[in-house]
Amino acid sequence: MQDLSGSGWQAAAWSAGAMTLIVALRYLLTSGAFAWATRIVRPGLYQGLEPQIRREIGWSLASAAIYGVPAGVVAWGWQQLGWTRIYTDFSAFPLWYLPLSVLLYLFAHDTWFYWTHRWMHRPWLFRRAHAVHHASRPPTAWTAMSFHPWEAVTGALVIPALIFFIPIHVAMLGLVLAIMTLMGITNHMGWELFPARLVHSRLGGWLITASHHQRHHENYQCNYGLYFRVWDRLCGTDRGLSSL
Ligand SMILES: [Zn+2]
Ligand SMILES: [Zn+2]
Fold it and tell me: GO MF terms on file (predicted)?
């Protein structure tokens, strides 16, 4: 084990800075790509929203630092000190655990998100933390990370905390992060990416896509989930889909 004095923490700080840059670039490139796709698929959908989009990008870049710092420190600890339950050898766990680990992460993240999100809709907290996200009316492909710093902190700690408890192969962790990025952006972009026959299928009835989250941005007190409709359905907060 490396000692944590001096150069150790300096390297952790470098890792935090590098991760912030990566998160910011990932946001700009993926949100940029879907904003560009929106211009082709739904020309004029974001017309007149330029001032809102500028604010969304500003809040999102601040969120990138809040997401990047814990992720960077944990990535450094994983590499240098053997922190976390991330594994790189495919034979370390049975192969069936690979998809199961992805589902466990998504479900744990979804559960955390549902309850913290509902909590942030209480008037006192809404005004102080969550109003920034709902200032996007309607949301756009740039809204995905548009959070007040308090809200960003609640989101930024989930995955870095989970990797200390739930074993996951590094490639599956990459998949979880890719799903998180894709759904965070497409759920806000104002049109449905997925085919109607999936969205309106039996399976679709348990999954969250743009049609579901759009209704949250229209009606506020419903559809709080992130990936799955399980908690919304169990708690009676599911109000169905918006017609996009
Ligand atoms: Zn939202
Ligand atoms: Zn909300």
Answer: iron ion binding; oxidoreductase activity
